[in-house]
Amino acid sequence: MSDERCKKELWPGWHTYQCENKAKRDGWCGIHHPDAVAKRRAKSDAKYKAQREDFVATQAVAARDRERLAHYPKLVESLRPLAEQDCESWGCDIANESHLCPPTGARTVLTEAAAIEKRKGGRDG
Ligand SMILES: [Zn+2]
Ligand SMILES: [Zn+2]
User: Fold this and answer.
1) Neighbouring C-beta atoms of residue 29, cutoff 10 Å
2) How many whole angstroms separate alpha carbon 34 and alpha carbon 50?
3) pTM tops 0.85, yes or no
4) How far is CA 123 from CA 58, 59, 63, 85, 118, in A?
5) Distance 60 CA to ligand 1 centre (A)
6) Ligand 2 center to residue 102 CA distance, Å?
7) Number of Cβ atoms within 10 Å of the Cβ of 98
8) Mean pLDDT of the 49-72 span
């Protein structure tokens, strides 16, 4: 009863053979029915689209980082003495990253700069 088999032809190597699954609908098996194929394709398209969006978002963060980083060195250099002064007057334990100074002002910018440097380092390997 070969006419009950799925009509899909497969190319596993250099010769074709007919799909050995039983035809369920319209002469196709569940896997090879055009509806099922289209459904799988839509699913993988959606997955690709999500991956693509992730990638674009990551690139956007990277671009923003690069842009900000371009302005940072001078800013960081001018803020570092201020931050150190703050920490000194508040009696922070800088070696242990234990701060008593308020989480605003110069140190915030330095912390952010360090975070960006870290992300950059991660990307570059
Ligand atoms: Zn089939
Ligand atoms: Zn501090």
Assistant:
1) 18
2) 24
3) no
4) 11, 11, 12, 33, 9
5) 43
6) 7
7) 8
8) 87
Q: What are phi and psi of 93, to 5 degrees?
A: -95, 85
The residue type found at 66 is R
What φ, ψ does residue 44 adopt, rounded to 5°? Answer: -70, -30
pLDDT digits 0-9 by tens, 15-41: 888 999 999 999 999 999 999 999 999
| Residue 87: closest CA among 71, 118, 110 | 110
Compute, in angstroms, the gap from residue 7 CA to the centroid of ligand 1: 7
* Among candidate residues 11, 10, 35, the one with its CA nearest the CA of residue 21: 10
The two tokens of residue 10 are 């497969």
Token digits of residue 108:
């915030």
Enumerate residues with CB within 5 Å of ligand 1 (an ion).
6, 8, 19, 21, 29, 32
The pair of structure tokens assigned to 3 is 């006419």
Cβ neighbors of 20 (< 8 A, separation 6 or more) are 5, 6
